[in-house]
């Protein structure tokens, strides 16, 4: 995407989005492949051929041009290509007559539409045009990739005609990462039937054995539902195939599972409600894929017991768990060289970079004073590097001897950056009320928050502004700024994370239980010897099991309590903690400027109604959050205890290597075995 998601700038009004310029500077790693081009058709109609076969025709055809980015293996002889696509229109789509007549824009209309496809990741979809562009992006990438896969499959064995397609699933795996690539299902069916001449049953067998689906969210707004009329207009042939998949699924349930007939309306691919008929992409994935997985133990259980429970009774063996992982090469060896050298020295091997389970060998040294001294020195070096980044990026000076407390992730109400900043506001108010002697006993803390708010997500942008407004007051208050600083880190991305994560000592993963599928930054922090404060959500559950309960600061409601707590709230049974009311009131008082935070704070008020009723349980969890933060302050005063906790976090991170994750996908979903180069 030429202009990325966006580059984030923080101004007086809060977040500003500007276009990313990464491609203007030229990317030396990508190799354009002018020899690899595929046509992708939008709109048009379905033609019926004399032999009864159906085919897409008319509409507009864009070309997908391949770019290859080499991905070298770590200490191996292997390199593979990551294949990317750019959208282009051809020369014959340029109207020379119109151009020479001065109609420059209409002369290059299709070229302009091609550019839109690869311009921006996740374009705003509040308008019909925005929705159409997102659907175009999804289909364009799916179609180009599948055409390429089929071309390479046929190229490797020239006699592959109808009848040899049964080999396809043993050579190709298509893993649909969330619902964005769902159109791979009808498009693979179309290519097999319309282009390769297979019948429905054979094409369906191949498709079902080839595609698998990873679910990444239980948030309703992220489980895509596309308007049937938009789909029919943009992709008429694919929509016919989706309708046929839905029809056959319904027939199968009625004929084999009479007891499930009453559930069909919610299980079917098409929601035909007259008000708003939609295609449910998650349902299409579950119905069509041979395997469905979640990305953490808790998340996969929620999928089986709640979100996809009806499908489990039809296909009990279809559902699995694959806990996410991270690469230790980037997220420890590369980004934290000082700590890496210590790990290698004490383990007497650097093999941990490709066998992360070896980190458990650090446990026996967890009380060793020599290791403690080296570990503390490495952490301080990372903290100084982070302090320099903060000064360069924000102009704020922070003290590397204070507790570095970091929350970096996409800004979203369920991730509860609002709870974090309310906690910081409460801490600031208490500091203001303390005598000089009382302040001497306080654990000095630097609270850092980073992340991008989606351009049209108003409350998320208000949270970004609130963090900045609180920081502006706290950091310039001479009575307090020795004991507390609040900093918003702008333009969070991987490069920023590589500096922040090694320098962090406490990391906040505080989403409402049951709402974060897994999270992976929690794993990166833990691997770097950072202690987590968090809820029992996503991979936090497994991290806590691996690193030990004493080395994790737990608070908050559990996932199985959330529905009941929301019901209690609706029934007016929630009684807010005075500390929660105090923090909100301090913001309303104007202490942090004149901006009107009423709409943001109102989301925490009332018992029900749109944008009210504290859906994410900030108020319910706030008291236990504040209590957990007090336990953090106490623990940090005991340097020996804190460093031991830090060592045991790194030592318990072996499970969270992406090598383990990929190995499980390979064996348990794709059915492939390793083939090492000699």
TrEMBL record:
It catalyses: [(1->4)-alpha-D-glucosyl](n) + phosphate = [(1->4)-alpha-D-glucosyl](n-1) + alpha-D-glucose 1-phosphate. Its EC number is 2.4.1.1. Pfam families: Phosphorylase. Belongs to the glycogen phosphorylase family. It is found in: Cytoplasm. Its main location: cytoplasm. This is Alpha-1,4 glucan phosphorylase. It comes from Phleum pratense (Common timothy). The modification N6-(pyridoxal phosphate)lysine is found at residue 524.
